[in-house]
Amino acid sequence: MNTTKIILESAKKTIESEGDAIRNLSSFLNDDFANAVLAIASSKGRVVITGIGKSAIIAAKIVATLNSTGTPAIFMHAADAIHGDLGTIQENDVVICISKSGNTPEIKMLVPLIKRGTNKLIAMTGSDNSFLAQQAHFVLSTYVEKEACPNNLAPTTSTTAQLVIGDALAICLLELKGFSSKDFAKYHPGGSLGKRLYLTVGDIAINNQKPEVHTDTDIKKVILEISEKMLGVTAVTEKDEIVGIVTDGDIRRMLYKYNNINGLKAQDIMSAKPKTINIDVLAVKAVEIMQENRISQLLVVDGKKYMGIVHLHNLINEGIV
Hints:
- The protein has helices at about 5-25, 30-40, 55-70, 80, 105-115, 130-135, 155-175, 180-185, 190-200, 200-205, 220-230, 250-255, 265-270, 285-295, 310-315; strands at about 45-50, 75, 95-100, 120-125, 140, 210-215, 235-240, 240-245, 270, 275-280, 295-300, 305-310.
- The protein is α/β, with parallel strands linked by helices.
């Protein structure tokens, strides 16, 4: 058997093994899971998530997911907690402790310290009979039959199971709170994802030049306006309202059609009823309109008033496309 085939078969086996274990997790969901979600949702504090080893890494990821979906959370390393960081936990916080075995020395030392207060303790563990599970108010099972590791030693399937239960918690809380895409945008202002959720065409158009001519503008001045404003288009307006559009394509078609362009006006070559978009519409909607109509510019309006241009290149530069 060649090396490539061995590698691909190993990868396939790992994915299928983990997939089977994840699908089996739903059979462990019970009232404890629902009550854990309700406890977090009703808490006036944060979610403090702790763990050690690979479980600590998973804990940090779940913290990030919760924070980004409207549930305040903070990470506390289990080893650091018993050496001074236990003060991270405040009176109204809910604590989630993640441990595959639920019996590590750090967990056994930490759990009684947590329980001295009034905090709800949620166990995320692969062993319902462990010390952690027995001490917790609610138990979230992440049991897996075996790791993907051929020696059944390296945390692989078990940490994937922890991630999935963490995601399930986050999504249940998101839905319970009615967390919307607008709320999501508040927590993701940077990058292309954030921009798709909050950037409007007005935010873009304001940075562009505003090409504009009137119906009786001489065609040579129309060409100059398109060239100088460098957007490949100009709006044709009367009393600040759009009556037409002249594009680079209109100019080319004019040169084919007329041997003599002297005396031509904007109204002679413009296209009436051009596509427009309101200033407060999300930029991602502009992409949809451009794609549907196979155009690269949209005229931006505020009601009926002409405000400027949004170009496909703007949307590409902003990472919207």
